[in-house]
Structure formats: structure tokens, C-alpha cells
Specification:
Layout: E1 2-4, H1 6-12, H2 17-24, H3 28-36, H4 44-54, H5 58-61, E2 62-64
Antiparallel strand pairs: 1-2
Length: about 70
């Protein structure tokens, strides 16, 4: 599972989602979908903009959380 660390980075930079959506020209609905992980893809343009405005690297923006493997009985 991939987690996008937007909320954590906003807190670190003392910025709001409202500020970010204005800078990126993205709707609140789409920004919230990305934050909640409800999207199946994200463009490189958005990744670049998130990193630019949140002062981070792609590695700080994106975290991979391993799926728990099913235990076979």
C-alpha cells in the first residue's frame, strides 16, 4: 500500500490544505482523495508540485506500507 504524507508535511511546514490547493490549482475533493488514498494513480506533475510546495523529496512524500500477508492454515 502506498501512503502519501501530505498532512504530515503540511503540519511540518505550518501550512493548510486550503493553502496547498490554492498553490496547486487542485480542487479540495481531488486533494482529499489523494490524501485518503482513494486514487489509483497520481501524475508526476502533482508529485513535483507537492514536493515543491511542501519542501520535500518524493521519498518523504511517498511511503510504502507492506501489505500484511495472509497466514495460510
Amino acid at each position: 500500500m502506498i501512503k502519501i504524507n501530505i498532512e504530515e508535511l503540511l503540519k511540518k511546514n505550518n501550512k493548510s490544505k486550503y493553502w496547498l490547493k490554492g498553490k496547486m490549482n487542485i480542487t479540495s475533493r481531488n486533494l482529499n482523495k489523494i490524501i485518503r488514498g482513494e486514487t489509483t494513480s497520481i501524475s508526476f506533475k502533482y508529485i513535483e508540485d507537492f514536493c515543491k510546495y511542501l519542501n520535500c523529496t518524493p521519498g518523504e512524500l511517498i511511503t510504502i506500507i507492506p501489505n500484511k500477508e495472509k497466514i495460510k492454515a
